[in-house]
Write a structure and sequence with these properties.
heterodimer; A: about 160 residues; Four Helix Bundle (Hemerythrin (Met), subunit A); 7 helices; about 80% helix; B: about 550 residues; mainly alpha
Chain lengths: ~160, ~550
């Protein structure tokens, strides 16, 4: 019961902040709205027993990425309160696409008999220890490939961001 | 069990590691590049030499594995989840192609140094970064053709894409390059998101990341008479395909292609034009072969829609590519649209994968060999064409079609080779381009998609016009431009490509045989190797979904 209530509260928070992100005419406010969305999703992860994922969501997205975005806005825009308005045609086209997508996704999700997993077994497999084990055994290859990917991308980013002498 | 495995420090066996030797060689090349830069004060020639050696080494390792025809899977999967990586003749064949092409691009980089153009300066200074990104994208493309695991596919596509964004923007002071890279990033991000959504649907429903297992579960569902799957499967598989269609630059995911090809430096354009598309098609074949061919005994309605969508996409890709190439004045942009059109031809054969063949499931589908031999010829044609454009650019500083004026006088050798290459791109007999297209369209015809063949033939006629425009500029228009000082080695590469095109036109029969042998392995993954492996390895860990409980797929306990 209380879990249900918490679910609706957090889902509502992330939903309304997401709408605020889309509708806000001020880019900084949009960034703050994003904080609500990402935080709300993190709480949903906690509710689903995915503790590690929730913490990662808070640290990487709500913490890191969002601050990066705010810094990006501060450093690049002429004025910190710069607004950006889509044209009417863009707004209408985007809303049509969004409505069709929403109907499609909702239909898809409700139509399909999703597999149900035993909650006890599930919470067992979601501990930090079991995730760590999996990363170094079953998912060793993706783990290593991701590290090569990060190395290469970091070099690319460092090159692109470096000022020319 | 994970605990005991950690206690004994679980390691993949040396045999499994040795199966992935070509991939390790590519990573080692990246590391060697970085270390060498530290010790040689970022010497650009050392960097280029390391890439050359790395490409040769990787190619030889892959070639050795290709010859041995050894076991076709290599998975690091202590829990019996199905292989993370697959090392079969199909993947090794693509890795060999990628290495050959890496050598071509490195040669182009080397020769381009000698020209005095402003943007060659950048490449001179920052060779290390350039080659790290370049080899990184080659590594990603090699991964793309060596896996049937959803997670690995996503990582591989990112590994191929992210460094490509970097090398596109490599000329930092060039506005066109920056804009192109920006478009590339935005498109790539959106298509990746759609792809990951499709993958998450598949994973959420089938509870496994292994596509071969998913294929078997679909087959089991069909056998059990499940009906809910059609809409779900169409959406999930198609969404997953979007990310791959972006790499192949299929319409409507092609918008990045002309801008990127024009904005990037010519080495990068050459690399992306062939490697990115070949890897995308390889991945597409891989994905479709494992999820479509396992259940092909039971016709899956959903795949009919996916195939139809791919067929429509192929027709659009061809037509849009050819029509847009009409009015292009920039050679790189023109070749970009031409490469979109060629991707369309190749996608046509992908669309018929769904239809069963007379030969039955065991034999290789004709579409595989048709696409693989098309890719070989396409590689030769594009390498040759871009090399000629590069050499013209190095000596004139212009990428416009007018830079080709009077090439027959300025450099007869290049003009003749370019004319042959262009006619092969159109698909004129008896050149390789014709034979490859002929086999491909024959496969499509036999697959029953007659309207697609008609569209392809009409498109070939359209394409004649804009390819012939370059030939006309080379031979009929002469406005007295000075002679081209093309480096000998560059001319040699162009000549080799041209000879290759003529030879493939005559000898496509044997080449098709080779392509057939290499592609037939795709089925082996589904048919013989994965099934017994998952069944036997899953033994103690009953929680792992395996083939046995596949027939209870919709309600996994």
């Amino acid at each position: 019961m209380i879990e249900d209530a918490a679910f609706y509260i957090f889902a509502g928070v992330s939903l309304f902040s997401a709408i605020a992100v889309v509708l806000s005419k001020n880019i900084v406010r949009a960034a703050v709205g994003l904080l609500g969305t990402l935080g709300g999703v993190a709480c949903l992860y906690f509710l689903a027993d995915a503790n590690l994922l929730g913490v990662i969501q808070l640290i990487v997205y709500a913490g890191g990425t969002l601050i990066l975005i705010v810094f990006g806005i501060m450093l690049t825009s002429q004025s910190p309160w710069v607004g950006f308005l889509p044209t009417k045609v863009q707004a209408i086209a985007a809303s049509i696409v969004a409505v069709i997508l929403t109907i499609g996704i909702v239909r898809l999700v409700t139509l399909v008999p999703w597999a149900q997993r035993n909650p006890d077994e599930l919470s067992q497999s979601l501990t930090v220890k079991s995730i760590g084990d999996a990363l170094l055994t079953t998912y060793l290859v993706p783990f290593e490939v991701a590290s090569v990917l990060l190395l290469v991308v970091m070099i690319g980013a460092a090159y692109l961001a470096r000022t020319e002498k | 069990m994970p605990q005991s495995m950690l206690a004994s420090m679980w390691m993949p066996s040396a045999e499994e590691l040795s199966q992935l030797a070509p991939l390790f060689a590519l990573v080692a090349t990246i590391v060697a590049l970085l270390l060498a830069a530290m010790f040689t004060n970022r010497n650009r020639n050392v960097a280029a030499s390391i890439v050359t050696l790395g490409a040769i080494g990787t190619g030889l390792l892959a070639w050795k594995r290709l010859q041995s025809g050894a076991p076709s899977w290599a998975g690091f999967d202590p829990n019996g989840m199905g292989p993370m990586l697959i090392s079969d003749t199909f993947s090794q064949f693509f890795i060999v192609l990628a290495c050959v092409f890496m050598l071509v691009v490195t040669a182009m980089w080397w020769l381009g140094q000698k020209s005095d153009l402003p943007d060659s300066e950048v490449h001179r200074m920052d060779a290390t970064e350039f080659f790290v990104l370049f080899v990184g994208s080659a590594f990603g493309m090699s991964l793309m053709v060596s896996t049937t695991n959803l997670l690995m596919i996503i990582l591989a596509v990112e590994m191929a894409s992210l460094p490509s964004y970097g090398i596109t923007a490599f000329r930092k002071k060039n506005r066109v390059a920056a804009e192109a890279s920006m478009k590339y990033v935005l498109f790539g991000a959106i298509t990746s998101a759609i792809m990951i959504y499709g993958a998450s649907l598949l994973y959420g429903y089938y509870q496994t990341l292994d596509l071969a297992t998913i294929g078997m579960k679909i087959a089991a569902d069909m056998q059990a008479g499940a009906t809910t799957g059609t809409l779900f499967l169409s959406v999930a598989v198609f969404a997953f395909m979007v990310g791959i269609a972006f790499k192949v630059s299929a319409v409507p995911f092609h918008f990045w292609c002309p801008d990127v090809f024009q904005g990037a430096s010519i080495e990068v354009t050459t690399w992306l034009s062939v490697a990115s598309k070949a890897a995308g098609l390889g991945l597409m074949l891989r994905v479709l072969s494992v999820i479509i061919c396992a259940p092909s005994a039971f016709p899956v309605e959903a795949f009919k829609y996916v195939s139809l969508a791919i067929a429509i996409m192929a027709a659009l890709t061809c037509t849009v590519g050819n029509l847009a190439a009409y009015r292009q004045m920039n050679l790189k942009r023109l070749l970009a649209y031409s490469s979109i059109a060629h991707a369309g031809y190749m996608l046509m054969a992908v669309a018929i994968l769904w239809s069963p063949t007379d030969a039955g499931i065991g034999a290789a589908h004709p579409a595989f060999s048709a696409i693989v031999s098309y890719i070989i010829v396409y590689l030769l044609m594009n390498a040759g064409a871009f090399f000629v454009v590069a050499m013209v650019y190095w000596s004139t500083g212009s990428e416009s079609i007018t830079a080709m004026n009077g090439l027959i006088r300025r450099s007869p050798m290049l003009a003749v080779c370019m004319a042959i290459i262009l006619f092969s791109l159109v698909g004129m007999p008896p050149l390789g381009g014709f034979m490859a297209k002929f086999y491909l369209l024959m496969a499509v015809w036999k697959g029953g998609l007659y309207w697609l063949v008609v569209i392809a033939v009409l498109n070939t006629l359209i394409s004649l016009y804009y390819y012939a425009r370059i030939v006309r500029a080379m031979i009929l228009t002469d406005d007295g431009l000075p002679e081209i000082s093309a480096p000998m080695s560059g001319q040699l590469i162009v000549a080799m490509c041209t000879i290759g095109i003529i030879l493939t036109g005559v000898l496509l029969g044997p080449m098709k045989e080779i392509a057939n042998n290499n592609a037939s392995n795709l089925y082996a993954v589904v048919k013989s190797d994965v099934a017994p492996r998952t069944a036997s390895a899953a033994g103690p860990s009953a929680a792992t979904p395996n083939t046995e409980n596949a027939d209870t797929a919709p309600t996994i306990p």
